[in-house]
Specification:
The structure holds three protein chains of three kinds. Helices cover 24% and strands 25% of the residues of chain A. By secondary structure, chain A is an alpha+beta fold. The mean pLDDT of chain B is 95. The chains are: A alpha+beta, B alpha+beta, C alpha+beta. Chains in contact: A-B, A-C, B-C.
């Protein structure tokens, strides 16, 4: 193992004192802690999963189906094996254990053996001594397919012949609340669509597998959840989990794309078959086929309200296209249905949510997880309702805003904080800062570098949106994280399998530990499977869950430390406390630095932290399914060139319900980066799929926002109402920014153009050709 | 595959002998896999993301689009050369201080682009900064802290504010 | 087999004559994408990086001669931009700073993509392409050089040496539609150049046909709609009709980037705006 270059995957190399020079004060709660991995990252020294290297390593490559639906009639690997430098060619027959995997349902083959259900499904993999040799070998495998008509319409899939033994309906969730037949004075109805978004993390899937002496395998991998990968890899290898050891390699972004297994099992199989380290790095095109995407959705809504703008009933039918395999579709549609009406009190509701199986690319987790799609729809409905009522759209939202004590359509009473009105007001109160005249510099106009727009042809609109979602896992899942804190000569070492994917758990872990123990130097050990699970870096949960585990472990260490020091001074346990960086007694008799209090005695504690239980939904979609909720609002101003349909976001304002600001700088980064992904979904991001075939699997044609597509985000007053039960009162902050940004931007484009625009992303032709008859 | 190639590349002031390379290898691949310089990142392999930005004869380019064997005789500079002693350049320090780093995968490329911009123009406007980094995709930050890092670097270097 | 790195144009021609199968490499921004994704596997590559004759540019009377190795960044240089404004505008829309530092006008011609940003400008300017080989030197008008999507009249043993365009004789515009504000491939591009003395307007269209297109009917029609001594449209509303006529010359297709209808519509809008900027200000 020693030859593997992994020095900087330890995000806080002990040699550098975890980013805090000895003797300087490390940031505590509420301070802008610098990332301990920031320095190696700006230097280019941080070892991402694609940067690993080992003596004698081979390169893996995957052969994928060009067809979205087909029967495999034969596979001939002999031509690939004949190529010099090829060391292994594996197919489904080489999977010793379970031949399928999946996050919630094991329905996805490691390799397709007889049936192809989506374009890009793996059929075989190769290991060779050079990546180009591996690629050519994969191409040399002769697979004969009998192409079949793909099932591509999620709605039609409900009645269509099953494309998988498990059937086409992955989950049908019905929420019936109150009296769903209630009507109001005003009714508005609409059908909305959301396109398929890609997480597009800059780092593609990559990793290395190394066979170990005990017949097991070591996997160095970029993932969101080491232990769920471990379980799936072990099952397919037919090995006990302890023989499949995973260590987190540097992760180049995730956003949901790394929740499902991609190359993990293939890599491990190749390493075990060849007896050599094997590295695999997807190129960008393969990455689009190698992970799940955000579900495209078609959503019908009908809102009923009284004349004064009180919502009395919402009906909704949600069709989410999950593609060929289940992935996290059951949970995604669960969220979509639970949050379908938005953060508004709705006494009566009938929501019908479907997650469907088709021959389109598999869809699963992406930042916002089901709430993004429905927020686009319910916020369009709220604007439509305001228009029908002749009411100010912000006033309408305030009138119906959820608050603590309200009941959700699932029957769950909100017991935690729910400052919906507060986030709405915080955004509304931010003054309009955009110059009323259009910025005439060509690069600042819609179309930017293309010099297409003239200032006097540009129109401007403003849009507002509010959204929410749950924090942490729901519907009865036993959600926990594990952390170990060791205090040795004033230096705390934190061990946790939490995947740092860029979100900043590394600063949270240090800040929490410092706050509790009063030490400055906090070293983070590598994240691996030698400790218990931390759960997934998703669902905005790690600050609460792994932060909670670190805090609890640090508190356990603190109590033992205080007891030891109390005994040193002949005092009763409980007579001492940590005050900043000192241990003190109330009477002042004891006052010594934490770093010196224990001498060379070492204290270590490991804690498994669980959040309060949640419960499954019953047959009417009723139940206390969620732990906590976070709320968010955005206001967008967009300049539009209506003739060409080109847009330029010129202002974006937000506020968010964060519970407690733990790290102002990192929080800002989450608000900005999350909003940017929402802006992308509003204006440009979509995987185009025709007859089951992806047409734009590249960064040339799958466009994400550049620096010229985004303005500076302006953050209004953040709402800090401590959440009961959450460590330091803080709610997760990662997902909400992606939820209401999309509908706010599209609402602004609607306001600028007067068009209905029921679909996102808004394509230039949706604007430019609206009302123009096709010739 | 064609017969392997041997050639020399001048990288960060040091002559490197590349042995047994495939002719089609990009400079990015050779830097990362043959010369042990993984600072330039591979995120798209088609010049759309800027993660692999390096300087070739004082020009900022995507190393994924440079045929390594054709770079013989040029002077190549990578992110690893910005702070040879383990220290940070002022731009790198500004990225750390401004919170411009999240997952960090795009960061070395962005640092190279900003170093190149400020070498050409010590006092760019915000719009010029945005244009200069428009070829560097970042998926984490929404560019807000990155722009701020440029502001910080310009302020420290010249005392001027980015307008 | 080896990478050929000639250090003079003569040597480049000689080596290419010996290795007609070699791929000619200019800035690399097109070829390397294909190599990286395994779509092209060169047995040999002839790099023009060290051929000094291709690097410079100069003015020869009323003609601007651009070496094939002139990069997009260099095309944006004010000294060139003054002589060929639309070429500079087009160059600035290409990719990113990194791409503009590497990509060359010769490479744009060598690839001959319908979406190549400089090609509509070269079409509008009646540019001539100079090709050299061991057997000699020939020049082709752009219209004869571009023969299909990514197909050109260049022989496998020829090297693009330079491209010549007339020095600007009036206002010029290049406008390009893409669904992002930077770093985007053209969905529709339009160049319009005026020759005030010669009393003519020429239009070049990109991404709306198999090759860069001209709009001869529109060009002829608009001559009489311009008050040439004042440099203004007689009736600014004529720009709209001009747009329709130019759009009629487009031959767009549907693809994953846009529909043919949207592209044709864009051409109409871009032509109207370009003419208005040139003659109504």
């Amino acid at each position: 193992m020693s030859e593997i270059t992994l020095t900087d995957t330890t995000v806080a190399p002990p040699a550098t004192g975890a980013g805090t020079a000895t003797g300087t004060r490390g940031a505590r709660i509420g301070e802008s802690a610098s990332r301990p991995d920031g320095i190696p990252k700006v230097q280019g020294r941080f070892a991402y999963s694609a940067d690993l290297w080992a003596e004698g390593m081979l390169w893996g490559h995957t052969l994928r189906s060009p067809h979205p639906s087909a029967r495999i009639t034969s596979i001939d690997i002999a031509p690939a094996l004949r190529i010099p430098g090829v060391q292994a060619v594996l197919t489904a027959d080489d999977v010793p254990g379970r031949r399928t995997y999946g996050l919630e349902i094991h329905d996805q083959p490691v390799f397709a053996s007889d049936t192809i259900r989506y374009q890009g499904e793996p059929v075989a993999c190769v290991a060779a001594d050079h990546p180009e040799t591996a690629r050519r070998a994969a191409e040399a495998i002769v697979v004969t397919y009998e192409a079949l008509e793909p099932l591509i319409d999620a709605e039609a899939a409900i009645e269509a012949p099953a494309i998988h033994p498990d059937g086409n309906v992955v989950r049908h969730l019905v929420i019936r609340h109150g009296d769903p037949t209630v009507t109001g004075d005003v009714t508005v109805e609409g059908t909305y669509e959301v396109g398929m978004q890609d997480q597009a993390p800059l780092g593609t899937e990559a990793g290395m597998a190394v066979p170990s002496d005990d017949g097991g395998v070591e996997l160095y991998i970029a993932t969101q959840w080491l232990h769920i990968d471990q379980a799936q890899v072990a099952a397919s290898l037919d090995l006990p989990p302890e023989k499949v050891r995973l260590q987190l390699a540097g992760v180049g972004g995730a956003f949901g794309a790394r929740e499902d297994v991609s190359l993990q099992i293939h890599l491990a199989l190749l390493a075990l078959h060849t007896g050599r380290p094997v590295k695999m790095v997807y190129d960008r095109a393969e990455s689009f086929f190698g992970h799940v995407h955000r579900h495209p959705a078609r959503m019908w809504y009908r809102h009923h309200a009284t004349a004064d703008g009180t919502i009395v009933n919402v009906e909704a039918r949600l069709i989410f296209d999950g593609g060929a395999y289940a992935s996290s579709s059951p949970a995604v549609i669960g969220n979509a249905a639970c949050f379908a009406v938005g953060p508004y009190f709705t006494p009566n509701a009938h929501i019908d949510g479907w997650a469907m199986r088709t021959n389109n690319p598999p869809c699963g987790a992406m930042r916002g997880f089901g709430a993004v799609q429905t927020c686009f729809a319910h916020e369009a409905q709220m604007d439509k309702l305001a228009d029908a009522l002749g009411m100010d759209p912000i006033e309408l939202r305030l009138r119906n805003a959820l608050k603590t004590g309200d009941t959700l359509p699932t029957g769950q009473v909100i017991t935690g904080t729910a400052p919906v009105a507060e986030v709405i007001r915080a955004v509304a109160e931010v003054p309009d800062a955009v110059s009323p005249t259009i910025d005439g510099r060509p690069m600042a106009l819609p179309g930017g570098a293309g010099r297409t727009a003239d200032p006097d042809g540009v129109v401007r609109g403003s849009g507002f949106a509010v959204g929410f979602k749950n924090i942490a896992f729901s519907e009865g899942f036993d959600d926990f994280s594990t952390a170990r804190v060791r205090l040795d000569r004033g230096v705390a070492t934190v061990t946790c399998a939490c995947a740092e994917v860029g979100q900043g758990f590394v600063t949270i872990a240090q800040q929490f530990t410092r706050e509790v123990l009063g030490v400055d130097e906090v070293v983070l050990a590598p994240a691996d499977t030698t400790i218990g699970s931390a759960g997934s870096t998703s669902a905005s949960r790690q600050t609460w869950m792994s932060g909670g585990a670190v805090k609890a472990a640090a508190e356990a260490v603190r109590e033992r430390m205080l007891a030891l020091v109390a005994a040193d001074h002949g005092l009763a346990p409980g007579s001492l406390r940590v005050d900043d960086d000192r241990i003190v007694s109330d009477d002042g008799a004891v006052d010594l630095p934490v770093t010196e209090a224990l001498g060379d005695r070492v204290v270590e504690e490991t804690v498994e932290y669980h959040h309060e239980p949640t419960y499954p939904l019953d047959e009417h979609g009723q139940g206390d399914a969620h732990l906590s909720f976070a709320f968010v609002a955005h206001r967008a101003v967009v300049d539009v060139d209506p003739e060409l349909g080109l847009c330029r976001l010129v202002d974006l304002v937000t506020s968010q319900d964060v519970g407690k600001v733990l790290n102002p700088l990192q929080l800002l980064g989450q608000l900005e980066g999350g909003a940017a992904q929402g802006v992308g979904l509003a204006l440009m991001e979509e995987i185009l799929v025709t007859d089951g075939t992806v047409r734009n699997a590249s960064f040339t044609d799958y466009l994400i926002p550049t620096a010229l597509d985004l303005p500076d985000l302006r953050v209004g007053e953040l709402v800090e109402q401590p959440e009961p039960g959450a460590p330091f009162g803080a709610k997760g902050v990662g997902e909400p920014p992606t939820i209401s940004s999309t509908p706010a931007v599209v609402a602004a484009v609607r306001a600028a153009t007067g068009l209905a625009l029921p679909r996102t992303p808004v394509r230039p032709s949706d604007i430019a050709l609206a009302g123009i008859e096709a010739p | 595959m064609t017969a392997p190639e041997d050639y020399d590349l001048l990288v960060n002031g040091t002559e490197h002998h590349v042995v047994g390379a495939w002719i089609g290898e990009s400079l990015l691949y050779v830097l990362r896999e043959r010369l042990g310089l993984p600072g330039a990142k591979n995120a798209c392999e088609q010049g759309e993301c800027g993660s692999c930005s390096v300087m070739v004869d004082d020009r900022l380019v995507c190393s994924c689009l440079v045929l390594a064997a054709s770079a013989v005789g040029t002077a190549i500079t990578t992110v690893e050369s910005l702070a040879p002693d383990g220290a940070l350049s002022d731009v790198q320090q500004a990225f750390v201080d401004a919170g411009a780093v999240q997952c960090g995968f795009c960061t070395p490329g962005l640092v190279m682009a900003v170093e190149d911009l400020l070498a050409r123009d010590a006092a760019p406007t915000e719009l010029e900064v945005r244009e200069a980094i428009s070829g560097n995709l970042c998926r984490c930050t929404g560019y807000g802290r990155v722009i701020d890092a440029v502001r910080v670097a310009v302020r420290r270097r010249t005392g001027a504010e980015v307008a | 087999m080896t990478v050929l790195l000639p250090d003079s144009l003569d040597r480049a021609c000689a080596q290419l004559a010996d290795h007609p199968e070699a791929h000619v490499l200019a800035g690399g921004t097109d070829l390397m994408v294909e190599v990286n994704f395994g779509h092209r596997r060169p047995e040999a590559v002839l790099s023009l990086a060290r051929v000094p004759e291709l690097k410079g540019w100069g003015r020869d009377g009323d003609t601007l001669v651009l070496g094939a190795g002139v990069t997009y960044t260099e095309l944006c240089d004010p000294a060139i931009a003054e002589l060929a404004p639309a070429l500079a505008q087009a160059a600035r829309t290409v990719g990113s700073p990194q791409i503009r530092n590497a990509g060359t006008i010769g490479g744009n011609l060598g690839t001959g993509s319908p979406a190549g940003d400089t090609l509509p400008v070269l079409a509008a300017l009646d540019a001539t392409v100079e090709l050299v080989s061991v057997t000699g030197r020939r020049t082709l008008p752009l219209a004869e050089y571009c023969i299909g999507p990514k197909r050109t009249a260049r022989d496998a043993t020829e090297i693009i040496a330079s491209v010549s365009v007339p020095v600007a004789r009036g206002p010029q515009e290049y406008l390009k539609v893409g669904p992002r504000n930077a770093m985007v491939i053209s969905v529709a591009g339009l160049a319009a150049v005026a020759d005030i003395e010669g009393r003519r307007v020429a239009v070049g269209l990109g991404s709306v046909g198999p090759v860069p297109l001209r709009a001869p009917e529109a060009e002829a029609w608009v001559v009489d709609r311009i008050d040439w001594s004042a440099g203004r449209l007689v009736d600014p509303a004529d720009a709209t009709e001009f747009g329709s006529l130019v759009a009629a010359a487009a031959r767009p297709i549907d693809d994953h980037r846009a529909t043919a209808d949207y592209r044709r519509h864009c051409v109409s809008v871009l032509a109207r705006r370009a003419l208005t900027r040139m003659f109504a200000a």
